[in-house]
Amino acid sequence: MSGLVAVTPYGNEAASTRVRVFDWLYRLAPDTPIHAYAGTRNNSPLTLLAHPLAVIGAGRDLRALASSSIDRLLLHRAASPFGSGDLEARLLGAARWRVYDFDDALQWDPGRSVTSLLGSNATKCIRCIKAADRVVAGNDVLAEWAGQFARNVTVVPVSYTHLDVYKRQVLVKTSYFPNWQASGADGPYRATPNLMVVVPTAHTVTLTYGTATAGKIGFVASGAGVVLLAGGYLVARRRRSRQPPTPIETELD
User: To which H or E segment does residue 155 belong?
Assistant: First the structure.
């Protein structure tokens, strides 16, 4: 496997990346360079904001890699949490042999995170599948879908996913909203204006409604704005109260 380069959006603390990239390459090609974006376990907005230098460096390194000549490339899920696949297409185009690996239902991702507002994960996934010489899917469901865009599709199962459970899509008769969070399932995803879908990965699925990250940030920012506005008003009022009264001049006839 000389000349192999691996690209993944997460570090080895992310379960999927650890199993499908780091563990594989540790056993088969331990000297393979792995570009793991910022090296974090997820790419949520708060995580990326906490590692600004790593994010800047990752973008620079990936652009340089895309401008080089690559013998063999293993791309897992995506190269970056941003965009709709332009960077991934450049990376795949720079390689002589291209393998794209995905083990999640990216094609059903509605793009509800802050980072995905700049690009669609579903569009990115399709572009990568079309550009790859071989596609590695996590189960038969994903492989069947990928077969619409690629001929050479191989299934390498995910050890912690039960395929029989994963195949079932459950329609939830509730209007979709980003604040819905699923435990034991992928999703929820918007199906129609009044329905949403979850894809179970466990025998028990729990849906909870809470405040999303973007909502929490907006709430904190709004509260801080109100505090600053009230503080500015009180300071200005205190200053006016301390000023001596302006003398009134009158003319006496």
Answer: strand 153-155
